[in-house]
Design a protein that fits this description.
The protein is α/β, with parallel strands linked by helices and 763 residues long. It is 47% helix and 22% strand. It has 28 helices and 27 strands. The chain has an eight-stranded mixed β-barrel with strand order 18-19-21-22-23-24-25-26. Helix 2 (37-46) runs parallel beside helix 3 (63-72), helix 11 (319-326) packs across helix 12 and helix 15 (444-463) packs across helix 16 (502-512). Bound molecules: ligand C2E and calcium ion (2 copies). One calcium ion is lined by residues 487, 547, 579, 609.
Length: 763
């Protein structure tokens, strides 16, 4: 209702009535008049009045119809209507009131009554409106209240969720915590209120971590991250924490709300997955993958610092044997214990990893700025590793001595992970071949040797077919300086590399299996020569010794092969001698003895090569059907004078006598050696003192008496292989051969007799 005077609209088609009303009401009300229903409605629509006086009897649309239309307008429906009616029309009063009229006035209008009724009605209306407004206000308030209540309920439920919740004031002092907070941290609300979240600090994060968190909160209004915290009972746990700043309308932080969940289990699972992917299950050491990562990092580090690092490939010697004899569990036990010892002796920043099997790798970083110094430090570390592994292990109650082989490679910037692995592996291979329990550094010469080896391996496959192999022969003499035989020694005439010594390609041939066709070819060549010599008066007595490698001898058909070669060549088996090495014999004594017997049955003789270098026990040496022991050249080299070697040589000679075996010394280079051996009763000799191994065409075994002062048959050819001293001793060969030649041809069987004859002759 307007503040000013109430507005009244009077609708009546009789102007006299309107004038009367105007005179009566205009003093207290703003009176508007309309002379038809339509006009009244239009005016009311323009500005709704506070009350309408409505004449019932009007042309076209009467008061009732007008009232109906007014009530149909939403903005007018609450405007009270007073009907004006003649006494004669009173019966219509009822209709008017049901239509929404609030009251009625009877014509002619009594001004006092009209004013009173209008006032009453307006007052009632005012009251009604006030109540209406209050009710609306109340309803709105109630609705608001209900809304707030439900929000609170939601907030309360949310606050009491499974997540720990903390509300702090802007300075971080805890105002409120929920039940989950207590459950997760162990602190009750009473214990937490008034403190700050620092209460939960685990000490696992540095100051910087918290600084970053606070600056994110200030800048963005929230922070999320993983935090290690500590429970009241001291246990450390991981939580995923979200902190949100609550701002006032003015943009000032009023509170912080922190919500967190315990992710310790997730972390553990994550750590476990990481462990499985990067660590070895048995020893818990980093695995190959992690090692490769670390090595890549180490290389980057070396590039930055310019310092050398080192990588050790470490391999347990004879681990396979332990595994085979005592089972995998014991093998695993050793691996874990070795891992423990290795780990114990490296620094914090170094990596000790397991590649698999019995292979471990040690990675040392930032050793030194100089390669030499780095190598020295690596060597020292290697020594430490040997020492730490040396004390015996106790495996399943039994002591076990473990030995290591190590290949070491220094690294600097420009190396790659793959290259380093290859080099360290190569160095390890060298350490192993050097007799185990040793350490080898990789060096470029080693690499070159390795590359040469692979190149040779390829060429060797065709060497036989391309007719590049040669057999040289080195004469053997008895005490009467008479040639009694020759040893067949292999050479490889390589088209680019020249003459290659057997020590450079026999191991290769053994590894690749090529030794089988090659060895057979040597035997065939020897047998062919036996056949060739059979018709020669002097040479028919000569024996040809052929070296047999373990790989050949181990073949089930080896004996058959020897028989086959003999048969095909028609050579006299008595003239063939096979040289077996001590290690070959030791490998499998029973099989060896059986094969040796079978070979002896063919009429072929057997010699034990390199004797003294192995560890044959006397007890079964006696069981071996040997014809000859060959004193290894390493014992001959330092004769006479070297006490130990003298003893060994003497012992072998005595042994041979006792076992009724012939004894030959190889590598005889000096008269002094010959004298010593002769003095102790050695039967035969072979060595540079007499002749180098030579091609058949250059061999001078029996110089013709007429030519006895001349040089060897083909001196030019011989000189290709002889050094200056050798040419001197080549003359010695001539002299000795001359002595032999003067002897003439004697029955070889009667050796003793001949020796005496020679001794006499030499006197
Ligand atoms: P081995 O059987 O011990 O042969 C003796 C080696 O000593 C030969 O080396 C020979 O040339 C050398 N030698 C002979 N007299 C002297 C001397 O006075 N002083 C020195 N310092 N050395 C002397 P070579 O010919 O280089 O053969 C090396 C090894 O290769 C042989 O050692 C043998 O184990 C192996 N080998 C040679 N030919 C064959 C073969 O046809 N088959 C097999 N399986 N191995 C062979
Ligand atoms: Ca030999
Ligand atoms: Ca030998």
């Amino acid at each position: 209702m307007s503040e000013s005077r109430p507005r009244i609209l009077a609708i009546d088609d009789t102007p006299a009535n309107l004038l009367t009303l105007g005179a009566a009401l205009s003093e207290h009300y703003d009176l508007q008049t309309a002379i038809s229903g339509e006009m009244g409605i239009a005016l009311a629509m323009e500005t709704p009045p506070d009350l309408i006086l409505l004449d019932v009897m009007m042309p076209r649309i009467d008061g009732f119809e007008t009232c109906r239309r007014l009530k149909a307008e939403p903005r007018l429906k609450d405007v009270p209507v007073i009907f004006i009616t003649a006494a004669s029309e009173l019966e219509s009063e009822l209709e008017g009131l049901t239509l929404g009229g609030a009251d009625y006035l009877i014509k002619p209008i009594n001004v006092d009554i009209a004013r009173r009724r209008i006032n009453n009605l307006l007052e009632r209306e005012t009251l009604h409106r006030k109540v209406q407004v209050q009710r609306d206000e109340l309803e709105a308030l109630l609705a608001e209240r209900l809304q707030a209540e439900s929000e609170l309920r939601i907030a309360a439920v949310a606050f009491d969720s499974q997540n720990g919740m903390v509300i702090t004031d802007p300075s971080g002092v805890i105002l409120k915590v929920n039940a989950a907070f207590t459950r997760l941290t162990g602190y009750s609300a009473a214990e937490a209120l008034g403190r700050t979240p620092a209460l939960l600090k685990s000490g696992r994060h540095d100051e910087l971590f918290y600084q970053r968190m606070w600056s994110a909160l200030k800048e963005k209004g929230w922070w999320q991250g993983e935090v290690w915290n500590k429970r009241k009972n001291g246990q450390i746990y991981a939580e995923l924490l979200t902190i949100t700043a609550i701002m006032t309308a003015e943009g000032v932080t009023s509170n912080y709300v922190a919500s967190f969940s315990d992710i310790t289990e997730d972390k553990r699972a994550e750590a476990e997955i990481h462990r499985l992917a990067y660590y070895d299950a048995l020893t818990h050491l980093p695995n190959r993958r992690l090692l490769q990562d670390r090595l890549a990092q180490a290389l980057a580090g070396a590039a930055r610092s310019g310092r050398y690092g080192a990588i050790f490939f470490i391999d347990l010697d004879n681990f396979k044997a332990l595994n085979d004899t005592r089972g995998h569990e014991v093998g695993d036990l050793l691996l874990s214990e070795v891992a423990q010892r290795l780990r114990a002796c490296v620094r914090e920043g170094d990596t000790i990893a397991r590649l698999g099997g019995d292979e471990f790798v040690l990675l040392l970083e930032g050793l030194a700025a100089e390669a030499n110094e780095g190598a020295a430090l690596a060597k020292k570390m290697g020594k430490k590793l040997f020492e730490i592994i040396a004390p015996s292990f106790t495996l399943d109650g039994l002591p076990y001595q473990c030995k290591l082989s190590m290949g070491v490679c220094l690294f600097a910037h420009e190396d790659s992970v793959e290259d380093l692995f290859k080099r360290a592996d190569l160095a390890l291979y060298q350490a192993k071949s050097a007799g185990r329990n040793s350490l080898r550094f990789f060096d470029p010469a080693m690499q070159a040797a390795m590359e040469l080896r692979s190149a040779l391996e390829i060429d060797l496959a065709d060497a036989l077919d391309l007719d590049q192999l040669r057999v040289y022969y080195q004469p053997q003499y008895d005490t009467a300086r008479r040639a009694v035989g020759v040893e067949a020694l292999l050479r490889w005439q390589h088209p680019q590399r020249g003459m290659i010594a057997p020590s450079d390609f026999i191991p290769l041939a053994e590894d690749t299996g090529l030794i089988l066709p090659i060895g057979r070819w040597v035997m065939e060549s020897a047998c062919a020569l036996i056949g060739q010599w059979a018709g020669d008066l002097q040479a028919q007595w000569l024996e040809i010794a052929v070296n047999v490698s373990a790989r050949q001898f181990r073949r089930a058909d080896f004996v058959a092969e020897v028989r086959g070669v003999l048969e095909r060549s028609g050579a006299n088996p008595q003239r063939l001698k096979l040289e077996l090495t001590e290690s070959l014999v030791l490998e499998n004594v029973e099989d060896t003895i059986a094969k040796m017997r079978a070979i002896k049955a063919l009429g072929v003789r057997l010699s034990m090569d390199d004797f003294g270098t192995g560890y044959s026990s006397l007890s079964y040496l006696a069981q071996l059907p040997l014809d000859q022991l060959k004193i290894d050249q390493s014992f001959v080299r330092n004769l006479p004078g070297a006490n130990k070697d003298e003893t060994i040589a003497r012992t072998i000679i005595t042994l041979g006598r006792e076992l009724e075996m012939n004894v030959i010394a190889e590598g005889v280079e000096t008269e002094a050696q010959l004298e010593f051996l002769e003095a102790h009763g050695c039967h035969a000799y072979q060595g540079y003192l007499f002749s180098r191994p030579l091609p058949l065409a250059d061999l001078v075994l029996f110089p013709a008496q007429t030519k006895m002062d001349s040089a060897p048959a083909s001196p030019a050819a011989a000189q290709d292989f002889l050094g200056p001293e050798q040419r001197d001793s080549g003359l010695a060969v001539g002299d000795l051969a001359r002595a032999h030649g003067e002897q003439g041809v004697v029955e070889v069987q009667g050796q003793q007799v001949e020796e005496l004859a020679v001794v006499e002759l030499l006197r």
